[in-house]
Amino acid sequence: MKDLRRLLLPARFDPTGSYRDPTRVSTRALAFRVLAHAELEAYFEDRVLEVSLAALRAWENARKVSEVTLHLIGFAGRTLELPPDSLSSADVRKAKEWASKTTIEDRLSRCVSDFQRRVRIENHGVKEANLLQMLIPIGFDISKCDAVFLGSMNAFGEARGLVAHTSGRAHVRKGVDPKDEYDKLRAIISSIVPIDDELTRLLNMATGS
User: Fold this and answer.
1) In this structure, is residue 15 part of a structural domain?
2) Which domain range does residue 198 map to?
3) Between 20 and 30 A from 11 (CA), which of 67, 84, 129, 160?
4) How many domains in the chain?
5) pLDDT tens-digit profile of 1-47?
6) Which long-range contacts (CB under 8 A, 24 or more apart) does 120-125 make?
Protein backbone atom coordinates (compact mmCIF):
# COMPACT_ATOMS: atom_id res chain seq x y z
CA MET A 1 0.00 0.00 0.00
CA LYS A 2 2.94 2.30 0.62
CA ASP A 3 3.93 2.00 -3.04
CA LEU A 4 0.41 2.96 -4.13
CA ARG A 5 0.51 6.06 -2.00
CA ARG A 6 3.96 7.05 -3.23
CA LEU A 7 2.97 6.58 -6.87
CA LEU A 8 -0.53 8.08 -6.84
CA LEU A 9 -1.05 10.40 -3.89
CA PRO A 10 0.61 13.73 -3.01
CA ALA A 11 3.74 13.46 -0.89
CA ARG A 12 2.11 15.92 1.51
CA PHE A 13 -1.60 16.31 2.04
CA ASP A 14 -2.95 19.86 2.04
CA PRO A 15 -5.13 20.34 5.15
CA THR A 16 -7.48 22.55 3.13
CA GLY A 17 -7.74 20.03 0.28
CA SER A 18 -6.43 22.57 -2.22
CA TYR A 19 -3.87 21.49 -4.79
CA ARG A 20 -2.14 23.18 -7.71
CA ASP A 21 -3.59 20.69 -10.20
CA PRO A 22 -6.87 19.47 -8.65
CA THR A 23 -7.93 17.49 -11.73
CA ARG A 24 -4.75 15.45 -11.73
CA VAL A 25 -4.90 14.94 -7.95
CA SER A 26 -8.52 13.79 -8.07
CA THR A 27 -7.86 11.44 -10.99
CA ARG A 28 -4.94 9.83 -9.23
CA ALA A 29 -6.89 9.58 -5.97
CA LEU A 30 -9.61 7.67 -7.81
CA ALA A 31 -6.98 5.38 -9.32
CA PHE A 32 -5.63 4.84 -5.80
CA ARG A 33 -9.11 3.78 -4.64
CA VAL A 34 -9.54 1.27 -7.45
CA LEU A 35 -6.07 -0.23 -7.11
CA ALA A 36 -6.31 -0.39 -3.31
CA HIS A 37 -9.55 -2.31 -3.69
CA ALA A 38 -7.82 -4.74 -6.06
CA GLU A 39 -5.03 -5.26 -3.53
CA LEU A 40 -7.48 -5.97 -0.71
CA GLU A 41 -9.42 -8.38 -2.90
CA ALA A 42 -6.21 -10.19 -3.84
CA TYR A 43 -5.18 -10.35 -0.17
CA PHE A 44 -8.37 -12.11 0.92
CA GLU A 45 -8.35 -14.44 -2.06
CA ASP A 46 -4.71 -15.42 -1.58
CA ARG A 47 -5.14 -16.09 2.13
CA VAL A 48 -8.23 -18.30 1.88
CA LEU A 49 -6.74 -20.20 -1.06
CA GLU A 50 -3.61 -20.81 1.01
CA VAL A 51 -5.64 -22.17 3.93
CA SER A 52 -7.81 -24.44 1.78
CA LEU A 53 -4.81 -25.87 -0.07
CA ALA A 54 -3.00 -26.49 3.22
CA ALA A 55 -5.98 -28.47 4.51
CA LEU A 56 -6.06 -30.61 1.38
CA ARG A 57 -2.31 -31.26 1.49
CA ALA A 58 -2.49 -32.18 5.19
CA TRP A 59 -5.09 -34.81 4.39
CA GLU A 60 -3.28 -36.16 1.34
CA ASN A 61 0.12 -36.34 3.04
CA ALA A 62 -0.70 -37.23 6.64
CA ARG A 63 -4.42 -38.05 6.77
CA LYS A 64 -4.85 -35.04 9.06
CA VAL A 65 -8.38 -33.71 9.41
CA SER A 66 -8.89 -30.25 10.86
CA GLU A 67 -11.76 -27.88 11.46
CA VAL A 68 -10.85 -26.33 8.11
CA THR A 69 -11.33 -29.68 6.35
CA LEU A 70 -14.77 -30.18 7.88
CA HIS A 71 -15.90 -26.70 6.85
CA LEU A 72 -14.67 -27.16 3.31
CA ILE A 73 -16.81 -30.27 2.99
CA GLY A 74 -19.76 -28.90 4.95
CA PHE A 75 -20.00 -25.67 2.96
CA ALA A 76 -19.11 -27.12 -0.45
CA GLY A 77 -22.66 -26.95 -1.77
CA ARG A 78 -22.42 -30.58 -2.83
CA THR A 79 -24.78 -33.44 -2.03
CA LEU A 80 -23.18 -36.01 0.25
CA GLU A 81 -24.29 -39.24 -1.36
CA LEU A 82 -24.58 -42.61 0.34
CA PRO A 83 -22.11 -45.37 -0.67
CA PRO A 84 -22.99 -47.42 -3.78
CA ASP A 85 -24.12 -51.04 -3.65
CA SER A 86 -21.05 -52.27 -5.53
CA LEU A 87 -17.32 -51.48 -5.57
CA SER A 88 -17.35 -51.40 -9.35
CA SER A 89 -19.76 -50.02 -11.87
CA ALA A 90 -21.66 -52.32 -14.16
CA ASP A 91 -21.55 -49.52 -16.71
CA VAL A 92 -18.04 -49.24 -18.22
CA ARG A 93 -18.70 -45.60 -19.11
CA LYS A 94 -19.01 -44.77 -15.40
CA ALA A 95 -15.85 -46.59 -14.29
CA LYS A 96 -13.70 -43.45 -14.14
CA GLU A 97 -16.11 -41.59 -11.86
CA TRP A 98 -16.74 -44.58 -9.57
CA ALA A 99 -13.87 -43.67 -7.24
CA SER A 100 -15.76 -40.56 -6.19
CA LYS A 101 -18.54 -42.82 -4.92
CA THR A 102 -16.32 -45.11 -2.85
CA THR A 103 -13.48 -42.94 -1.43
CA ILE A 104 -13.39 -39.75 0.60
CA GLU A 105 -10.21 -38.43 -1.04
CA ASP A 106 -11.94 -37.54 -4.27
CA ARG A 107 -14.80 -35.86 -2.45
CA LEU A 108 -12.52 -33.60 -0.45
CA SER A 109 -10.39 -32.69 -3.48
CA ARG A 110 -13.52 -31.80 -5.44
CA CYS A 111 -14.79 -29.66 -2.57
CA VAL A 112 -11.49 -27.79 -2.42
CA SER A 113 -11.35 -27.49 -6.21
CA ASP A 114 -14.87 -26.03 -6.30
CA PHE A 115 -14.04 -23.58 -3.52
CA GLN A 116 -10.85 -22.42 -5.20
CA ARG A 117 -12.68 -21.97 -8.51
CA ARG A 118 -15.30 -19.81 -6.82
CA VAL A 119 -12.62 -17.69 -5.19
CA ARG A 120 -10.41 -17.32 -8.27
CA ILE A 121 -13.08 -16.89 -10.93
CA GLU A 122 -16.41 -15.98 -9.38
CA ASN A 123 -15.38 -13.60 -6.63
CA HIS A 124 -15.42 -9.95 -7.65
CA GLY A 125 -15.19 -7.82 -4.55
CA VAL A 126 -14.75 -7.37 -0.81
CA LYS A 127 -18.29 -6.61 0.29
CA GLU A 128 -19.99 -8.64 3.01
CA ALA A 129 -21.40 -11.21 0.58
CA ASN A 130 -17.96 -11.70 -1.01
CA LEU A 131 -16.20 -12.08 2.33
CA LEU A 132 -18.70 -14.57 3.75
CA GLN A 133 -18.37 -16.76 0.64
CA MET A 134 -14.60 -16.81 1.11
CA LEU A 135 -14.29 -17.02 4.90
CA ILE A 136 -17.08 -19.29 6.14
CA PRO A 137 -16.08 -22.34 4.01
CA ILE A 138 -12.63 -22.48 5.66
CA GLY A 139 -13.94 -22.33 9.23
CA PHE A 140 -13.30 -18.66 9.90
CA ASP A 141 -14.67 -17.40 13.23
CA ILE A 142 -17.19 -15.01 11.72
CA SER A 143 -17.52 -13.08 14.99
CA LYS A 144 -14.20 -11.48 14.00
CA CYS A 145 -16.13 -9.66 11.25
CA ASP A 146 -18.28 -7.25 13.24
CA ALA A 147 -20.96 -4.97 11.80
CA VAL A 148 -18.62 -1.97 11.75
CA PHE A 149 -16.00 -3.81 9.71
CA LEU A 150 -18.54 -5.26 7.28
CA GLY A 151 -20.14 -1.86 6.90
CA SER A 152 -16.82 -0.24 6.04
CA MET A 153 -16.06 -2.98 3.50
CA ASN A 154 -19.49 -2.56 1.90
CA ALA A 155 -18.96 1.19 1.66
CA PHE A 156 -15.48 0.72 0.21
CA GLY A 157 -16.76 -1.75 -2.36
CA GLU A 158 -19.55 0.60 -3.38
CA ALA A 159 -17.14 3.52 -3.66
CA ARG A 160 -14.89 1.47 -5.90
CA GLY A 161 -17.89 0.45 -8.00
CA LEU A 162 -18.86 4.06 -8.59
CA VAL A 163 -15.47 4.64 -10.17
CA ALA A 164 -15.11 1.34 -12.02
CA HIS A 165 -18.60 1.21 -13.50
CA THR A 166 -19.44 4.86 -14.15
CA SER A 167 -17.69 7.74 -15.86
CA GLY A 168 -14.99 9.24 -13.71
CA ARG A 169 -15.51 12.72 -15.09
CA ALA A 170 -18.23 13.61 -12.60
CA HIS A 171 -16.08 12.43 -9.70
CA VAL A 172 -13.11 14.43 -10.93
CA ARG A 173 -15.20 17.58 -11.43
CA LYS A 174 -16.62 17.20 -7.94
CA GLY A 175 -13.15 16.68 -6.53
CA VAL A 176 -11.69 13.79 -4.56
CA ASP A 177 -9.71 14.37 -1.38
CA PRO A 178 -6.58 12.16 -1.52
CA LYS A 179 -6.12 12.30 2.25
CA ASP A 180 -9.66 11.04 2.76
CA GLU A 181 -8.98 8.12 0.41
CA TYR A 182 -5.77 7.29 2.25
CA ASP A 183 -7.31 7.56 5.73
CA LYS A 184 -10.20 5.28 4.78
CA LEU A 185 -7.77 2.64 3.53
CA ARG A 186 -5.62 2.89 6.65
CA ALA A 187 -8.69 2.35 8.83
CA ILE A 188 -9.65 -0.74 6.83
CA ILE A 189 -6.14 -2.17 7.06
CA SER A 190 -6.13 -1.66 10.83
CA SER A 191 -9.44 -3.49 11.16
CA ILE A 192 -8.07 -6.41 9.13
CA VAL A 193 -5.36 -7.19 11.71
CA PRO A 194 -7.53 -9.51 13.88
CA ILE A 195 -8.88 -11.11 10.71
CA ASP A 196 -5.37 -11.79 9.50
CA ASP A 197 -4.56 -13.34 12.89
CA GLU A 198 -7.56 -15.64 12.57
CA LEU A 199 -6.50 -16.67 9.06
CA THR A 200 -3.04 -17.48 10.38
CA ARG A 201 -4.62 -19.58 13.15
CA LEU A 202 -6.60 -21.52 10.55
CA LEU A 203 -3.51 -22.05 8.43
CA ASN A 204 -1.59 -23.39 11.42
CA MET A 205 -4.53 -25.63 12.31
CA ALA A 206 -4.72 -26.99 8.79
CA THR A 207 -1.01 -27.77 8.64
CA GLY A 208 -0.76 -28.99 12.24
CA SER A 209 1.95 -26.46 13.07
Assistant:
1) no
2) 21-81+102-207
3) 160
4) 1
5) 677 888 899 999 999 888 999 889 999 999 999 999 999 999 999 99
6) 120/45, 120/49, 123/41, 123/45, 124/41, 125/37, 125/41, 125/157, 125/160
